[in-house]
Amino acid sequence: MKMVVDARQQYFPELADLVAKLDHDVRSPLTAICGYAECLGWLSVTDAAAREGYASAIVSQVRRLGRLVANAATLSSPQQETPLVEVRLAEALAEALAELANTTETQGIAVSVSLPAEPVTVFWARAVLSQLLVATLESVLEGAGERASVVIEVRPQAREVALLISSKSEWPVPFCTESFAFRAAARLVGTRGGSLVWRDGPPPHLQLHLPFSGRLAARPAEGLEQSA
Fold first, then answer.
1. Can you give the pLDDT at residue 46?
2. Pair 58, 31: CB distance under 8 Å
3. To which H or E segment does residue 168 belong?
4. Domain boundaries of the chain, sorted by first residue
């Protein structure tokens, strides 16, 4: 990993710091997996409901670990070399939510999405956009707590499209902007000229901005302004 960091410093000056966050965050799913696996070993073979719950939690943590590794691999390669394609934002968002379905089901989180009437498309590397959306949503879910409600609004704004993501929960977890998921998402969107910021509210929410202008634009800016 150190060789990757040294080789890519000219592209990502902050990658070394991201790798340090990764090392810390990887320990969380690994600890959870070990804990749930031990619980499975203690359970009676007749306790099917509890066994299923622990098994589902293990799957969720394994997928989280896989996403962390995938983000690290994407961040270690220069984004300038990644081919761009036209992607419908609604489809990419649906795929990201499907990737996190196990997490939302395990924690009892309800997610609602508000989309504009006219389809929104962007030029992006599809796999990278998917990782960006998953990492962003994962940051929200980690702070939302169990049985939370998460609202995602897609709002075209002149030369950008904004994703406004907020959550409500009886037992919210303090949001951490130092987590690898959040830092990776911010770095991924930054390589394409966008931004990811945390607003303190009320209510507290994330704002993810994706640019439409220039070579990233799937439609003229004038059309976006009319449909905003």
1. 62
2. no
3. strand 160-168
4. 2-75, 84-227
CA dist., res. 76 & res. 3, Å (int): 10
Q: Which helix (H) or strand (E) holds 226?
A: helix 221-227
Q: Nearest Cα to 5, choosing from 20, 128, 179, 82? A: 20
Query: Which CATH number does 84-227 carry?
Result: 3.30.565.10
Q: Which two tokens stand for residue 196?
A: 């990811």
Which pTM was predicted? 0.71
CB 116 within 8 Å of CB 163: no
Separation CA 78–CA 13 (nearest Å)? 12
> Is residue 169 a contact partner of residue 142, using CB atoms and an 8 Å limit?
no
Amino acid at 166: S
The greatest distance separating any two alpha carbons of the chain, rounded to the nearest whole angstrom, comes to 64
Reported as a single tens digit per residue, the pLDDT across 72-88 is 777 766 555 667 788 88
CATH topology of domain 2-75: Helix Hairpins (1.10.287)
Under 8 Å between Cβ of 176 and 150: no
Place of tokens 């099917």: 48
For the chain, the first-to-last Cα distance in angstroms comes to: 44
Spans of the chain below 50 pLDDT? 1-11, 213-228
Residue 59 three-state SS? helix
d(CA 185, CA 212): 18
